Fold this protein.
Amino acid sequence: MKNWKADLDFEVPAGFRWAAASGSIKKPGRLDVGLFTADTTATAAATFTQNDFRAAPVLVSQQTLQETGSRISGVVVNSGCANAATGAEGSANASSMAATAQNASGREAPLLVCSTGTIGVQLPMDRVTPAIADAAAKLSGSREAFNEFAQSILTTDTCEKIAWASFVADGKTVRILGCAKGSGMMYPRMATLLAFVATDADIAPDLLRKSFSNAVELSLNCMTIDGDTSTNDTAIILASGKSGANVTAGSDTLRLFDQKLLEVMQSLARQLARDGEGATKLIEINVQGAADFTAARHIGREIANSNLVKTAIYGRDANWGRICCAIGNAGAGVDTAKVQIKLGDIVLFKENAPLPLDEEAALKVLSEEFIPIEARVGSGPGSATVWTCDLTDKYIEINGSYRT
Amino acid sequence: MKNWKADLDFEVPAGFRWAAASGSIKKPGRLDVGLFTADTTATAAATFTQNDFRAAPVLVSQQTLQETGSRISGVVVNSGCANAATGAEGSANASSMAATAQNASGREAPLLVCSTGTIGVQLPMDRVTPAIADAAAKLSGSREAFNEFAQSILTTDTCEKIAWASFVADGKTVRILGCAKGSGMMYPRMATLLAFVATDADIAPDLLRKSFSNAVELSLNCMTIDGDTSTNDTAIILASGKSGANVTAGSDTLRLFDQKLLEVMQSLARQLARDGEGATKLIEINVQGAADFTAARHIGREIANSNLVKTAIYGRDANWGRICCAIGNAGAGVDTAKVQIKLGDIVLFKENAPLPLDEEAALKVLSEEFIPIEARVGSGPGSATVWTCDLTDKYIEINGSYRT
């Protein structure tokens, strides 16, 4: 799918408020503290990083979810400091952020907490704490408030990532609205950097968890920017129930909900990949004919994580040999005689031999902002779509000087 | 170890000749066809790529080794074209190169064949065949001939990689002389791009195979430039026996041979990493306290393959959080409280918390050409040293325009 722009024409689900303020963590005066609350306690589901160095806010949020049985009243988040690898002081700061947010917003149930930014630096709590109070004072269910929240979570991102969908069940409109951030250190293996979704569906915790996990698996977990899984990856959905539409196991409403949630999450995944650090192109890799989805995605990730494939696409070079090389590196035992590689509609390689390359046609495809690649790797039933971006000198510039 | 310069002060092992010629594959007139022969049939051992897309010369050489019981008279090699993903025509061309080389050099036993360069392009056999004959006509056991051979195998490399060692056993001098190439698409998982070693030790095929595999495992297989394993990776050693020194199982001579061979191979590995595409620094990552060597190397590779670690070092930024992140991504279940990270002699992180960073001291270490990093990940007995290089805008420039 080609769309990778933030959908700014969204409707806000019932029962939520957002706000953002500045703790001057990133730069003086920039929005870097966000608050996302449910008017009454909501049902939550979340997925977190698999990195052994899980950040303090990840550990705190996981514990909160367990203790509350996933009944949560919101999320407080800061950008500019990851609060990861920060020891006991970091843990205390993460708990303090959640407590401050709960008190300031007067909510009954606890809030989850997220951080993103530089690893190994302590939070400036003397500025974070008042900023949380500032945000709580202006919580609002308006579109502007949501937009500010979506801005406040960004780091090296160049734009907000926003996606939404709605459907009608039993005459009631259900809305799903999400935003995300992440531009580098992006290789979500169980979740992505930060993604927040609000829905007014009325859905039980177990069902929400299952729906959200499935959607994350086919969206954020099919995306990579640079193969590095962050210490802070967190994706959270809160369901307020305020639409009045009941989503129950086995129902048509659940099928609709799952479909629309997947649309929202895949849109966020594309927006994230397109805005990868220094990126100029969105690359969509569709793998067909693998043993199963997992095998297909593994091969897709191997292609998507190849610096050589990514630099070739940046250079508008139809160097498909590098795609062969990446496929061969997946360790999937691919029968090379069955491999077929397409760039847009152009078949580059099949039956173990190169085809005459129409350089002009290839250059035309590679000059677009959206680069579709299809890799057929056998005759199995497994397929997967993986999104990534090109690798440019701008990525080196950003990451050679991020902290300094 | 700090040394990563080619050792040009080498001695040539007895019983070998080298030569190079131009087939104008890379650029008109540049040396790109090399010949490396044993005066009488030699004992060979080799390791090859694990990529599913093994190149035609890899498949041909593997078959030759099997058919001859590793009794080989040399190697013919070209650079500028990988002869990979080239179908039946490519296979015929690889076999033809080996046959031409055997005829032209008048050798009794077959030669192995190697290629390196762009994937998916057919060899210009009308130029390659006469170039092999040119090379055969000037085969010589001189140092100059070896130097020319070492040059002829280069692609995006900026310099030759040469290492040698010798020892005396029973009053006889044994020499081990190797050269290698490889600058991008470098993540040797069973061998490296191309490495050729000659020794005049007298050693049986099984013993040579074991010694060489061990040495490759601790040298080329501990090195990565960009995490891409090439389709053509090949490392070959030929033993002429002409020193008269017999290397037998369980002997002190074997222990000496293994030690010196490892020195040569690790020197080549460091030279390769330092000359990675666009690199300005050699990074040595020493992992301590893992469960075993394999686990330690896996963590070392995860750090070495992190674009974020590599760009930070390029930017002389002591961003050790990215090293934590990479360690956590290895999936080794590391206990983060036991992790300690050092840059040179500076402890950056221990006991789950950052230490006050002396930025000036860190900048001093990071301004050197050789960057030593130590990661202690637990209290296990496993350790490993992995070599890589920094990731720079020059890498993007080289790979955004390699084929065009």
